[in-house]
Amino acid sequence: MKDFKIFQDCLELLNLACVSQNYLNKFTQNVDVSDLKNFPCGHWGACPSINFLYLHLINFFKRHNLKANIVVGTGHAGSAVNANLWLCGELEKQNRSFEISSRGLNNLIQAFGKEIRTEINPQYPTTLFDGGELGYSLAFAYGLAIDDGLDFLPCIIGDGECETSTLSASWQLGRLTNNRKVLPIINLNGLKMCSESFLSKLTDRELKALFSSYGYKAYIAGANHKELYNALEDIYKSKDLSLIIFKSKKGFSAFENDQIKIVGKTSSHKNPLTIPNSQSKANFLKSWVLNYNINPFLDSDKRKQLISFYKYDFYVPKIKPKKFNLKTDLNCSAFKNLEINLKNLLSFNDFYILDPDELTSNKLGEVKNNKRVISLLNENVLQGLYQGLSQANIGGLFVTYEAFAPIFISMVSQYLKYLTQKQQISKRKNPSLNYLLTSTFPENTYSHQNPEFVASLFNKEYKNVNAYYPVGAKSLISTLEKSLNSKDQINVITISKRADCEKFNNLDGDLLILKDSKKPDIVLCATGDYILNQLNDVSEIIELLLPEIKIKLIYISNIKILSEKFDEGLTQKDFEKLFSSNCPVIYSYMGYKSVLKNLLYERNCRFKIFGFEDRSNISGSVEKKLKYNKMGKDSIVLEILNTLLDLGKISKAEFARARFNTFLKLEEVSIK
Known about the structure:
Number of helices: 24
Strand content: 5-15%
Strand order of the largest sheet: 7-6-8-9-11-10
Largest sheet: 6 strands, parallel
Radius of gyration: 30 Å
Helix content: 25-40%
């Protein structure tokens, strides 16, 4: 166990070096305030235990010749993961300036906290998980472990992280997936940022009983090399669903003196030396460094021997080229087409459906019993699983009600940050995350109305976010095929499960002109299947009552074409041609108006936008719900008539007559 102690010292020296601006040789001499960084980088308290676990896990992988990786969800702990990736040679593969030498180490020390983000992220080679948000590391690990080439996947979980609802629900995945590649390791150091963790209050017997109820055989190991070594060996021989509870004090390896106490205190969480730019801090840091066995680290030959012994190639799933081919049957509804295609996709090993117990409700009941359908009433856990599946190069579709997607929007936002950084560093492209949002606001009760998912994503203006509103069978299936074959995108497909759009089954494309006039008096534009039905009816009413008025009716499925910020966006010339230059446009959207306002902000156009206003606290027909959101047929017809009157296209008498006849007609329809 002597080698483990040497490695532990080396790794912790690397962590301490991250607060300095110079290589560690400096700490054997006089250390001055100027040798320290102005701002402390990262979180230190969890680093000693992460180092302890990493060095045992890497040694375990090498002993048994395992293809493995490690998921780290325990707080930020970036400097610990960074240190291990440098020492085992992975950082040098990605960036030659971080070579395993004194120069490379000095470059790393200076870059950490400046060019290198201190939270675990794609800058850390072989890291497939972004640790910026707590709670879904275990779900992610179970998703990633579906990869056939992976032998073993430890997931280090903070005891504070265990208190999140997502992590608490993720324990069920052991039995649900029956995947024994994943080894959860709870880093039970007793403290969160400011308080004790709940699990630290339980006895060993209570801990074992708790996790036994989830189906895990729990091994408890302290910060003792022999205990952890033996626990890993026992787990390797066992066929049980296993878990390790690693118990230590937070910051357990820290040097202390009469003035400064760190071990087992919340002060160790981030930067244990909180006095900025003081010589006493520099002196304490020097004493701390010299408290370790620094000689093997400073001696070039000994360091090379250590590095050679520690080198390990972490497993990263290989990219599997695939193409999804879907088929459309124009003789049946959009959702029947979808169900048939999903049954076919599930016959392959590289496709999964994630569903919070809504498939039958969403008219997809024939696929619900497939083994590659993961149905769990926890959207956050499903999102974590889905991210793991994507990193394992598995395609998928997340099917949920439109109103419940915002539950996990924060996780999707974090994943977008991950994708953005990954695209700057790596050419590796993974399957996109695809969401099918159904049970839309016009067809559901007030509590189940919230099209916020698209609004939140589009507020961020990421170019790899797409929102599609197909109408009918052909456009739904072609949109899904396009989404499944894309890489590193977030694709949101919104379609109502009850909208009667079979008359539009043969239509397809981001942009459809359904009624055209060379010189229209007014342009009606719709996005959303119920909205298209509604505007189509409105156009027929206007044509019946005011036959001399020329109408152009447009349907936009891909709302990104409205903005020039995106590659798909129409040029200003094409935009003006589509909307007939200065012709007034009535745009009704099956979502929040702010989405369209943001997309159209830099356009020189005359648009009146109708959209969801969160006001339909009634039960009743679709039209009633739209009406309570001030986007019913009456509101749209009145806006058209007022616009035509203002433009001098109709007289006041024509306005009054058309208004009276229109509302009489709408009242008759309502009574029926």
